[in-house]
């Protein structure tokens, strides 16, 4: 019999204590990217858009647009982002309106 089942019977708790206590597995969860506008050049912004398999990243003029609702947290943009992108660590992403999941990130990196 699985140890977790016996532990659950003994403790009377079979789930984690989240959100009352931090969820320990959150440290290893893949999360959507966060971008540093100061390091984000036009070339890097185009590269991360090209790398995104789900269409979560698009360009709108001088902005990179991230649709977190379409992001699968695959990490390809982080690999292609040349240091301008990192894991955000954010996993509490519920929103009451779809538009709240869309972020506009200014592309202000040195264009040299
Ligand atoms: S993590 Fe993957 S799906 Fe999400 S924005 Fe980056 S490339 Fe697109």
Description:
This protein has 112 residues and is of the alpha+beta class. It has a domain at 29-106: Alpha-Beta Plaits (2-Layer Sandwich), CATH 3.30.70. It is 21% helix and 18% strand. The protein has 3 helices and 5 strands. The strands form 2 sheets. The protein has a 3-stranded antiparallel sheet, with helices on one face. Strands 1-4 form a two-stranded antiparallel sheet. A hairpin with a 2-residue loop joins β2 and β3 (63-67). The radius of gyration is 18 Å and the shape is elongated. The model has no long low-confidence stretch (mean pLDDT 91). The protein binds iron/sulfur cluster (SF4).
What summary fits the major beta sheet? 3 strands, antiparallel
Distance between the termini: 62 Å
CATH fold naming of the domain at 29-106: Alpha-Beta Plaits
Query: How many beta strands in the DSSP annotation?
Result: 5
Question: What's the short story on this structure?
Answer:
By secondary structure, this protein is α+β, with helices and mostly antiparallel strands. The protein has helices spanning 3-11, 42-51, 76-80, and strands at residues 33-35, 57-60, 63-67, 85-87, 102-106. It has a domain at 29-106: Alpha-Beta Plaits (2-Layer Sandwich).
